Amino acid sequence: MAGYTKLHLIDDVEDSAQKFGMGEVLEAHFAREAIEAQKFGLSLQRLKPNQRLPFAHRHEQQEEVYVVVAGSGRAKLEDEILELAQWDALRVDPEVVRGFEAGPDGLELIAFGAPGIRDTEQFMDWWTD
Length: 129
Prior knowledge:
The protein has 129 residues and is mainly beta. The protein has one helix at 16-19; strands spanning 26-30, 41-47, 55-59, 64-77, 80-84, 89-92, 98-113, 120-124. A hairpin with a 2-residue loop joins strand 4 (64-77) and strand 5.
């Protein structure tokens, strides 16, 4: 075993948004298993221009960090809305309900979390104007 794994987050990792019928709004590449990570979770989420995720979520235990690698947008954390720009890093406590909205150039996020914790609670149509 080489002691490392190299992959392309778009070409080598399935777009889960497609299989869940959300391909019109985003791409979601969950890479933890593909990159053979044992101590963290990793995903690339590419929200299309001027789109809002159709759901929000929170966790029981899993703290997450989101890094904006391209574009801009907003995050709604409970009742607070934060502006996001390229290279902003946002850490979110597990119990905080969070959702994301892309600006005119889209919003591309790398998300880091804990490995294998399946403690997600989703809220459909949570962020309304």
